[in-house]
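Homework-ish question, so no full write-ups if that breaks the rules, but can someone show me the predicted structure for this set?
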Amino acid sequence: MRRVSAVLIHHPIYDRARTIVTGAITNLDIHDISRSAHTYGLEAYYIAHPIAAQRELAERIRQHWLTGSGSRRIPDRVPPMQNLRIVSDLDEALASSGPDTELWVTSARGGEKSLPHDAARASLHGEGPPVLIAFGTGWGLADEIVERANYLLAPIRSPRPDGFNHLSVRAAAAIIFDRLLGQR
Amino acid sequence: MRRVSAVLIHHPIYDRARTIVTGAITNLDIHDISRSAHTYGLEAYYIAHPIAAQRELAERIRQHWLTGSGSRRIPDRVPPMQNLRIVSDLDEALASSGPDTELWVTSARGGEKSLPHDAARASLHGEGPPVLIAFGTGWGLADEIVERANYLLAPIRSPRPDGFNHLSVRAAAAIIFDRLLGQR
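A: Not a homework solution, just the prediction itself:
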Protein backbone atom coordinates (compact mmCIF):
# COMPACT_ATOMS: atom_id res chain seq x y z
CA MET A 1 0.00 0.00 0.00
CA ARG A 2 1.34 3.40 -0.96
CA ARG A 3 1.22 6.34 1.45
CA VAL A 4 -1.56 8.74 0.40
CA SER A 5 -2.27 12.33 1.49
CA ALA A 6 -4.53 15.08 0.21
CA VAL A 7 -4.17 18.84 -0.03
CA LEU A 8 -6.87 21.50 -0.40
CA ILE A 9 -5.48 24.43 -2.38
CA HIS A 10 -6.80 27.98 -1.84
CA HIS A 11 -4.35 29.66 -4.26
CA PRO A 12 -3.89 29.69 -7.20
CA ILE A 13 -7.47 28.76 -8.09
CA TYR A 14 -10.01 30.09 -10.58
CA ASP A 15 -13.17 32.04 -9.87
CA ARG A 16 -16.29 31.91 -12.07
CA ALA A 17 -14.72 34.26 -14.62
CA ARG A 18 -11.56 32.09 -14.74
CA THR A 19 -9.52 34.76 -12.99
CA ILE A 20 -6.79 33.55 -10.61
CA VAL A 21 -7.91 34.24 -7.04
CA THR A 22 -7.30 33.21 -3.43
CA GLY A 23 -10.20 31.47 -1.66
CA ALA A 24 -11.14 31.85 2.00
CA ILE A 25 -10.74 28.87 4.32
CA THR A 26 -14.18 27.60 5.36
CA ASN A 27 -14.85 25.77 8.58
CA LEU A 28 -16.59 22.89 6.83
CA ASP A 29 -13.65 22.26 4.50
CA ILE A 30 -11.57 21.72 7.62
CA HIS A 31 -14.00 19.30 9.28
CA ASP A 32 -15.61 17.31 6.56
CA ILE A 33 -12.52 16.60 4.49
CA SER A 34 -10.34 15.79 7.51
CA ARG A 35 -12.95 13.28 8.71
CA SER A 36 -13.22 11.71 5.25
CA ALA A 37 -9.43 11.63 4.81
CA HIS A 38 -8.87 9.94 8.16
CA THR A 39 -11.68 7.43 7.67
CA TYR A 40 -10.14 6.37 4.34
CA GLY A 41 -6.69 5.95 5.89
CA LEU A 42 -4.95 8.97 4.39
CA GLU A 43 -1.73 9.79 6.17
CA ALA A 44 -2.30 13.53 6.22
CA TYR A 45 -4.74 16.17 5.03
CA TYR A 46 -3.12 19.50 4.21
CA ILE A 47 -4.90 22.84 3.97
CA ALA A 48 -2.78 25.23 1.91
CA HIS A 49 -3.30 28.97 2.17
CA PRO A 50 -0.83 31.76 1.35
CA ILE A 51 -2.18 34.25 3.95
CA ALA A 52 -0.84 33.89 7.50
CA ALA A 53 -4.04 35.18 9.16
CA GLN A 54 -6.06 32.47 7.37
CA ARG A 55 -3.61 29.78 8.45
CA GLU A 56 -3.83 31.02 12.05
CA LEU A 57 -7.63 30.84 11.92
CA ALA A 58 -7.47 27.25 10.66
CA GLU A 59 -4.94 26.36 13.34
CA ARG A 60 -7.20 27.80 16.07
CA ILE A 61 -10.10 25.68 14.82
CA ARG A 62 -7.80 22.65 14.72
CA GLN A 63 -6.71 23.25 18.33
CA HIS A 64 -10.33 23.64 19.46
CA TRP A 65 -11.03 20.07 18.33
CA LEU A 66 -7.62 18.70 19.27
CA THR A 67 -7.07 20.03 22.80
CA GLY A 68 -9.88 22.52 23.49
CA SER A 69 -13.46 22.07 24.64
CA GLY A 70 -14.40 20.50 21.31
CA SER A 71 -12.12 17.54 22.03
CA ARG A 72 -14.11 16.73 25.17
CA ARG A 73 -17.48 17.23 23.52
CA ILE A 74 -16.77 15.16 20.37
CA PRO A 75 -13.68 12.98 20.98
CA ASP A 76 -14.15 11.30 17.57
CA ARG A 77 -12.90 14.47 15.95
CA VAL A 78 -9.48 14.25 17.63
CA PRO A 79 -7.84 11.64 15.32
CA PRO A 80 -8.80 13.45 12.08
CA MET A 81 -7.48 16.74 13.47
CA GLN A 82 -4.17 15.09 14.45
CA ASN A 83 -3.57 14.40 10.76
CA LEU A 84 -4.53 17.89 9.61
CA ARG A 85 -1.58 20.11 8.62
CA ILE A 86 -1.89 23.81 7.82
CA VAL A 87 0.67 24.86 5.18
CA SER A 88 1.41 27.85 2.95
CA ASP A 89 1.36 26.20 -0.44
CA LEU A 90 1.59 23.04 -2.49
CA ASP A 91 5.37 22.89 -2.21
CA GLU A 92 5.22 22.78 1.57
CA ALA A 93 2.70 19.92 1.42
CA LEU A 94 4.87 18.02 -1.09
CA ALA A 95 7.96 18.51 1.10
CA SER A 96 6.08 17.31 4.17
CA SER A 97 4.86 14.22 2.34
CA GLY A 98 8.45 13.29 1.54
CA PRO A 99 10.92 12.89 -1.34
CA ASP A 100 9.63 11.59 -4.68
CA THR A 101 5.98 12.29 -3.76
CA GLU A 102 3.77 12.09 -6.85
CA LEU A 103 1.22 14.86 -7.37
CA TRP A 104 -2.19 13.72 -8.60
CA VAL A 105 -4.93 16.16 -9.53
CA THR A 106 -8.46 15.76 -10.85
CA SER A 107 -8.73 17.12 -14.38
CA ALA A 108 -10.92 16.74 -17.44
CA ARG A 109 -7.93 17.30 -19.71
CA GLY A 110 -7.08 13.68 -20.45
CA GLY A 111 -3.95 13.06 -22.47
CA GLU A 112 -1.00 10.82 -21.71
CA LYS A 113 -0.95 11.67 -17.99
CA SER A 114 -4.57 10.62 -17.50
CA LEU A 115 -5.24 7.95 -14.88
CA PRO A 116 -8.64 6.20 -14.71
CA HIS A 117 -9.98 5.58 -11.21
CA ASP A 118 -9.58 1.79 -11.44
CA ALA A 119 -5.94 2.08 -12.46
CA ALA A 120 -5.36 4.66 -9.72
CA ARG A 121 -6.88 2.29 -7.16
CA ALA A 122 -4.69 -0.61 -8.29
CA SER A 123 -1.60 1.61 -8.19
CA LEU A 124 -2.31 2.80 -4.64
CA HIS A 125 -2.77 -0.76 -3.42
CA GLY A 126 0.65 -1.71 -4.85
CA GLU A 127 4.12 -0.32 -4.15
CA GLY A 128 5.49 3.08 -5.10
CA PRO A 129 6.37 6.57 -3.87
CA PRO A 130 3.92 8.57 -1.72
CA VAL A 131 0.97 10.22 -3.47
CA LEU A 132 -0.47 13.67 -2.77
CA ILE A 133 -3.95 14.26 -4.23
CA ALA A 134 -4.68 17.97 -4.75
CA PHE A 135 -8.17 19.47 -4.72
CA GLY A 136 -9.01 23.07 -5.55
CA THR A 137 -11.54 25.37 -3.92
CA GLY A 138 -13.54 27.91 -5.95
CA TRP A 139 -13.87 26.93 -9.61
CA GLY A 140 -10.87 24.62 -9.57
CA LEU A 141 -7.09 24.48 -9.60
CA ALA A 142 -5.15 26.92 -11.79
CA ASP A 143 -3.41 25.49 -14.84
CA GLU A 144 -0.01 26.09 -13.25
CA ILE A 145 -0.89 23.51 -10.58
CA VAL A 146 -2.44 21.03 -13.03
CA GLU A 147 0.69 21.25 -15.21
CA ARG A 148 2.86 20.13 -12.30
CA ALA A 149 0.85 16.94 -11.76
CA ASN A 150 2.41 13.55 -12.42
CA TYR A 151 -1.02 12.10 -13.14
CA LEU A 152 -4.47 13.49 -13.95
CA LEU A 153 -7.30 11.62 -12.25
CA ALA A 154 -10.46 11.41 -14.30
CA PRO A 155 -13.12 13.80 -13.00
CA ILE A 156 -16.34 12.47 -11.46
CA ARG A 157 -18.90 12.38 -14.25
CA SER A 158 -22.57 13.11 -13.72
CA PRO A 159 -24.91 10.23 -14.64
CA ARG A 160 -27.62 12.75 -15.60
CA PRO A 161 -28.69 13.10 -19.24
CA ASP A 162 -28.02 16.86 -19.03
CA GLY A 163 -24.61 16.28 -17.41
CA PHE A 164 -25.32 18.73 -14.56
CA ASN A 165 -22.41 18.47 -12.13
CA HIS A 166 -22.02 20.83 -9.22
CA LEU A 167 -20.56 18.71 -6.44
CA SER A 168 -18.98 20.53 -3.51
CA VAL A 169 -15.25 19.92 -3.09
CA ARG A 170 -16.17 18.10 0.14
CA ALA A 171 -18.43 15.67 -1.72
CA ALA A 172 -15.93 15.24 -4.56
CA ALA A 173 -13.09 14.47 -2.14
CA ALA A 174 -15.20 11.88 -0.28
CA ILE A 175 -16.17 10.19 -3.56
CA ILE A 176 -12.58 10.13 -4.86
CA PHE A 177 -11.32 8.65 -1.57
CA ASP A 178 -14.03 5.98 -1.76
CA ARG A 179 -13.30 5.09 -5.38
CA LEU A 180 -9.55 4.88 -4.78
CA LEU A 181 -9.38 3.49 -1.25
CA GLY A 182 -12.83 2.26 -0.20
CA GLN A 183 -13.39 -1.26 1.06
CA ARG A 184 -15.33 -3.23 -1.55
CA MET B 1 -34.41 3.25 -13.96
CA ARG B 2 -36.31 3.65 -10.71
CA ARG B 3 -37.14 7.07 -9.30
CA VAL B 4 -34.84 7.84 -6.35
CA SER B 5 -35.08 10.51 -3.66
CA ALA B 6 -33.32 11.11 -0.36
CA VAL B 7 -34.44 12.50 2.98
CA LEU B 8 -32.36 13.94 5.81
CA ILE B 9 -34.08 13.23 9.12
CA HIS B 10 -33.63 15.55 12.13
CA HIS B 11 -36.05 13.67 14.41
CA PRO B 12 -36.11 11.02 15.79
CA ILE B 13 -32.33 10.61 15.87
CA TYR B 14 -29.83 9.59 18.55
CA ASP B 15 -27.31 11.76 20.32
CA ARG B 16 -23.99 10.44 21.65
CA ALA B 17 -25.68 8.94 24.70
CA ARG B 18 -28.24 7.18 22.47
CA THR B 19 -31.01 9.45 23.68
CA ILE B 20 -33.70 10.40 21.16
CA VAL B 21 -33.24 14.05 20.20
CA THR B 22 -34.08 16.60 17.51
CA GLY B 23 -31.13 18.01 15.55
CA ALA B 24 -30.78 21.55 14.22
CA ILE B 25 -30.81 22.15 10.48
CA THR B 26 -27.36 23.24 9.34
CA ASN B 27 -26.74 25.38 6.30
CA LEU B 28 -24.21 22.96 4.86
CA ASP B 29 -26.61 20.02 5.04
CA ILE B 30 -28.91 22.04 2.79
CA HIS B 31 -26.24 22.93 0.22
CA ASP B 32 -23.91 20.03 0.00
CA ILE B 33 -26.48 17.25 -0.05
CA SER B 34 -28.81 19.05 -2.48
CA ARG B 35 -25.91 19.54 -4.88
CA SER B 36 -24.85 15.89 -4.57
CA ALA B 37 -28.44 14.66 -4.91
CA HIS B 38 -29.06 16.68 -8.04
CA THR B 39 -25.72 15.75 -9.63
CA TYR B 40 -26.56 12.06 -9.18
CA GLY B 41 -29.99 12.48 -10.71
CA LEU B 42 -32.15 12.12 -7.60
CA GLU B 43 -35.67 13.35 -8.16
CA ALA B 44 -35.94 15.18 -4.84
CA TYR B 45 -33.98 15.84 -1.67
CA TYR B 46 -36.17 16.25 1.41
CA ILE B 47 -35.12 17.91 4.65
CA ALA B 48 -37.43 16.72 7.44
CA HIS B 49 -37.77 18.74 10.64
CA PRO B 50 -40.67 18.73 13.13
CA ILE B 51 -40.23 22.37 14.23
CA ALA B 52 -41.89 25.02 12.05
CA ALA B 53 -39.29 27.72 12.79
CA GLN B 54 -36.54 25.39 11.57
CA ARG B 55 -38.45 24.61 8.40
CA GLU B 56 -38.98 28.33 7.77
CA LEU B 57 -35.25 28.95 8.17
CA ALA B 58 -34.48 26.24 5.63
CA GLU B 59 -37.08 27.64 3.26
CA ARG B 60 -35.56 31.12 3.51
CA ILE B 61 -32.14 29.73 2.64
CA ARG B 62 -33.70 27.81 -0.25
CA GLN B 63 -35.36 30.96 -1.59
CA HIS B 64 -32.11 32.91 -1.33
CA TRP B 65 -30.50 30.50 -3.79
CA LEU B 66 -33.61 29.97 -5.88
CA THR B 67 -34.92 33.51 -6.47
CA GLY B 68 -32.81 35.83 -4.26
CA SER B 69 -29.40 37.41 -4.76
CA GLY B 70 -27.70 34.02 -4.43
CA SER B 71 -29.40 32.82 -7.62
CA ARG B 72 -27.70 35.62 -9.57
CA ARG B 73 -24.31 35.15 -7.91
CA ILE B 74 -24.14 31.35 -8.31
CA PRO B 75 -26.73 30.22 -10.90
CA ASP B 76 -25.47 26.61 -10.67
CA ARG B 77 -27.17 26.35 -7.29
CA VAL B 78 -30.63 26.96 -8.74
CA PRO B 79 -31.36 23.45 -10.11
CA PRO B 80 -30.40 21.64 -6.86
CA MET B 81 -32.58 24.02 -4.85
CA GLN B 82 -35.53 23.42 -7.18
CA ASN B 83 -35.50 19.78 -6.10
CA LEU B 84 -35.16 20.54 -2.39
CA ARG B 85 -38.35 20.01 -0.36
CA ILE B 86 -38.76 21.05 3.28
CA VAL B 87 -41.10 18.66 5.11
CA SER B 88 -42.18 17.87 8.67
CA ASP B 89 -41.34 14.21 8.87
CA LEU B 90 -40.60 10.98 7.07
CA ASP B 91 -44.26 10.33 6.31
CA GLU B 92 -44.60 13.61 4.44
CA ALA B 93 -41.52 12.74 2.35
CA LEU B 94 -42.89 9.26 1.61
CA ALA B 95 -46.26 10.70 0.59
CA SER B 96 -44.59 13.25 -1.67
CA SER B 97 -42.49 10.56 -3.34
CA GLY B 98 -45.66 8.65 -4.20
CA PRO B 99 -47.58 5.43 -3.52
CA ASP B 100 -45.61 2.24 -2.88
CA THR B 101 -42.37 4.15 -2.26
CA GLU B 102 -39.77 1.86 -0.68
CA LEU B 103 -37.84 3.18 2.31
CA TRP B 104 -34.13 2.34 2.35
CA VAL B 105 -31.89 3.22 5.28
CA THR B 106 -28.22 2.65 6.00
CA SER B 107 -27.79 0.24 8.90
CA ALA B 108 -25.18 -2.11 10.30
CA ARG B 109 -27.91 -4.48 11.49
CA GLY B 110 -27.88 -6.91 8.58
CA GLY B 111 -30.51 -9.62 8.62
CA GLU B 112 -32.95 -10.60 5.90
CA LYS B 113 -33.67 -7.01 4.87
CA SER B 114 -29.99 -6.25 4.18
CA LEU B 115 -29.12 -5.02 0.71
CA PRO B 116 -25.47 -4.91 -0.45
CA HIS B 117 -24.51 -1.85 -2.49
CA ASP B 118 -24.02 -3.82 -5.73
CA ALA B 119 -27.48 -5.36 -5.46
CA ALA B 120 -28.97 -1.97 -4.60
CA ARG B 121 -27.31 -0.46 -7.66
CA ALA B 122 -28.65 -3.20 -9.94
CA SER B 123 -32.13 -2.80 -8.46
CA LEU B 124 -32.18 0.97 -9.02
CA HIS B 125 -31.11 0.54 -12.65
CA GLY B 126 -34.03 -1.85 -13.23
CA GLU B 127 -37.77 -1.39 -12.80
CA GLY B 128 -39.73 -0.99 -9.58
CA PRO B 129 -41.49 1.43 -7.25
CA PRO B 130 -39.83 4.73 -6.20
CA VAL B 131 -37.11 4.58 -3.55
CA LEU B 132 -36.55 7.03 -0.69
CA ILE B 133 -33.12 6.77 0.97
CA ALA B 134 -33.15 8.11 4.54
CA PHE B 135 -30.10 9.56 6.29
CA GLY B 136 -29.95 10.60 9.93
CA THR B 137 -28.22 13.61 11.47
CA GLY B 138 -26.57 13.41 14.90
CA TRP B 139 -25.55 9.86 15.84
CA GLY B 140 -27.97 8.23 13.44
CA LEU B 141 -31.59 7.31 12.82
CA ALA B 142 -33.70 6.07 15.73
CA ASP B 143 -34.67 2.41 15.73
CA GLU B 144 -38.30 3.32 15.06
CA ILE B 145 -37.24 4.68 11.64
CA VAL B 146 -34.92 1.78 10.86
CA GLU B 147 -37.68 -0.69 11.67
CA ARG B 148 -39.93 0.88 9.04
CA ALA B 149 -37.36 0.37 6.27
CA ASN B 150 -38.05 -2.04 3.42
CA TYR B 151 -34.32 -2.58 2.93
CA LEU B 152 -31.20 -1.91 4.98
CA LEU B 153 -28.27 -0.66 2.92
CA ALA B 154 -24.90 -1.86 4.13
CA PRO B 155 -23.02 0.92 5.93
CA ILE B 156 -19.82 2.36 4.46
CA ARG B 157 -16.96 0.45 6.04
CA SER B 158 -13.63 2.02 6.90
CA PRO B 159 -10.62 0.47 5.14
CA ARG B 160 -8.41 1.32 8.14
CA PRO B 161 -6.96 -1.46 10.32
CA ASP B 162 -8.48 0.23 13.40
CA GLY B 163 -11.86 0.65 11.68
CA PHE B 164 -12.08 4.37 12.54
CA ASN B 165 -15.16 5.75 10.78
CA HIS B 166 -16.44 9.25 11.40
CA LEU B 167 -17.74 10.42 8.05
CA SER B 168 -20.04 13.42 8.03
CA VAL B 169 -23.57 12.72 6.80
CA ARG B 170 -22.72 14.91 3.81
CA ALA B 171 -19.76 12.71 2.87
CA ALA B 172 -21.72 9.51 3.54
CA ALA B 173 -24.61 10.65 1.34
CA ALA B 174 -22.26 11.58 -1.52
CA ILE B 175 -20.52 8.19 -1.31
CA ILE B 176 -23.80 6.26 -1.21
CA PHE B 177 -25.14 8.20 -4.24
CA ASP B 178 -21.91 7.43 -6.10
CA ARG B 179 -21.95 3.73 -5.25
CA LEU B 180 -25.62 3.34 -6.21
CA LEU B 181 -25.95 5.77 -9.11
CA GLY B 182 -22.46 6.87 -10.21
CA GLN B 183 -21.33 6.53 -13.80
CA ARG B 184 -18.65 3.83 -14.03
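Now go work out the reasoning yourself. Hint: Chain A has a mean pLDDT of 94.
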